[in-house]
C-alpha cells in the first residue's frame, strides 16, 4: 500500500481580519475568545487541506497572548503543519498585527493545535506523511516531537 504524503506548503493558510467593535472586549482590545475561534478555524483548514478529510481539534498547547490588538488593527493569522503522527498532526498558528504604513508584522499570539483526522464513521484514521523540504521545516518537526513528548508526560501525570 502506497502511503500518501504532502508538503508543508500544500496546506499553509493565511487569513486577514479587520478588528471591528463587535470583536472587542470591555477593555477595548480584541477579545481573546474571538482570536481563539479564528485560530481554531485556521488549524482546522490546514489539517483538512493536509488530510483531505474531516478533522477535530484534540488540544491546544502554548496559547500565548503576547500583545493586544485594537479596533481597526489588521490581524493576519497563518497556520501550517509542523508534525504528523499516525492519526494526528500538529498545526502551528501564528497571529500578527500588520502595520498599514510599513507592512511590518508584529507577533501577537502563537499556539500549537493537535488535530485528529476522522474517517466517515468519525473514527481516527491515518494521515498522509509530511515531506520536509527545508531546514526550517525539519527544525519545526524536531521541536514538535519535543512538544509531543511533553503532551504525553502531562497526560500521564493528569494535567
Automatic annotation (TrEMBL):
- Source organism, top-level taxon: Bacteria
Give the signal peptide, or none: none
Q: Where is the composition biased (Basic and acidic residues)?
A: 140-159
Domain HotDog ACOT-type: start-end pairs: 9-121
Q: Which UniProt keywords apply?
A: Hydrolase
Note whether Acetylation occurs among the keywords. no
Q: Which Pfam families match?
A: 4HBT
- Where do the segments described as Disordered lie? 137-159
- PANTHER family per record: ACYL COENZYME A THIOESTER HYDROLASE, CYTOSOLIC ACYL COENZYME A THIOESTER HYDROLASE
Instruction: State the family named in the UniProt similarity comment for this chain.
Output: Belongs to the acyl coenzyme A hydrolase family.
Protein name, UniProt field: Acyl-CoA thioesterase
Amino acid at each position: 500500500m502506497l502511503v500518501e504524503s504532502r508538503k508543508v506548503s500544500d496546506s499553509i493558510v493565511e487569513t486577514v481580519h479587520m478588528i471591528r467593535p463587535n470583536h472587542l472586549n470591555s477593555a477595548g482590545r480584541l477579545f481573546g475568545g474571538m482570536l481563539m475561534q479564528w485560530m481554531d478555524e485556521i488549524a482546522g483548514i490546514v489539517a483538512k487541506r493536509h488530510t483531505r478529510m474531516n478533522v477535530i481539534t484534540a488540544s491546544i498547547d502554548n496559547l500565548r497572548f503576547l500583545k493586544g490588538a485594537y479596533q481597526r488593527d489588521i490581524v493576519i493569522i497563518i497556520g501550517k503543519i509542523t508534525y504528523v503522527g499516525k492519526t494526528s498532526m500538529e498545526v502551528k498558528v501564528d497571529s500578527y498585527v500588520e502595520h498599514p504604513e510599513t507592512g511590518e508584522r508584529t507577533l501577537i499570539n502563537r499556539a500549537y493545535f493537535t488535530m485528529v483526522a476522522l474517517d466517515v464513521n468519525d473514527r481516527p484514521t491515518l494521515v498522509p506523511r509530511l515531506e520536509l523540504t527545508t531546514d526550517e521545516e525539519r527544525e519545526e518537526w524536531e521541536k514538535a516531537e519535543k512538544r509531543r513528548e511533553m503532551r504525553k508526560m502531562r497526560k500521564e501525570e493528569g494535567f
